[in-house]
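ESCALATION

Customer reports they have been waiting on this structure for their group meeting. Please prioritize. Original submission:
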Amino acid sequence: AALVAATTSSGLTRSSWIASVIALDGSGASWGSVVSETAGSCVLAGRLDKTRACRGVVTREPPSVHVLAKCLHGRREGWTSVFASDASAALDDGLPLPDDVDGDDDAEDD
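Update from on-call: job pushed to the front of the queue and completed.
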């Protein structure tokens, strides 16, 4: 309960770090309410273009906003990334890069 920030009457968080990171959002999404919140991240519910549901994943370190839009394909639905304020954080899978990416140990071919 201590990690959950106070919310305004519309359901948006009043947490100062979340508000400052949301300022980085350039997706044009309108945010409605907090879905979940921890000490270092927050998930917001919102809409893109007033028709598509979206979720915003806000992270404290590095400060970034990742916007995921709901997509439908037949009877299947899922989420697709439509905006990231920090591309390096959005593309990072958390795994270390191997020293030898191409398999040749940077040796010159003779």
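Sent to customer with the following note: Confidence is low (pLDDT under 50) at residues 1-10.
Escalation resolved.
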